[in-house]
Amino acid sequence: QGNDFVKLSSFILFALLLTSGGAAANTASAAAPLLFAPNAMHWVAGTGPAKGTAGVVLVGNPNETGTSIIRVKMPDGYINQPHTHSHPEYITVMRGALLFGTGDAINMSKGTLLPTGSFIMVPAGTHHWSVAEGTTIEQIGGEGPLVNIPIKKSM
User: Which pTM does this prediction carry?
Assistant: First the structure.
């Protein structure tokens, strides 16, 4: 059981993305601006719980300590199951809409629908979930590692 928790808690948004998508951002000089046109971003398909999504690393290495910024593209109806983080999370809805809620279980009637341009600051330790409404892109920033810690379902 402990090993399963380690596997789950080590799940990082888009594990493949984080190791293959952000090399340019990770090696840029702090003195030089980073510029990313939308058509130049290298989106990587999500796997495991993130299957059906895609992501791109813009700044940093989300697997390590330090500031990181990523974008996540989700299809309509994609559910990000209840989870928490050991760090504050900063989310901007770039496209589409996000139904966002807090708690250990998804309760659509208690979620808040956030349209394009909305911002969410999720304090460390807050149990939360989201559902994409339409094709949705969110930008996520925070101090790494950007680890989703799943909420265990009670039996």
Answer: 0.80
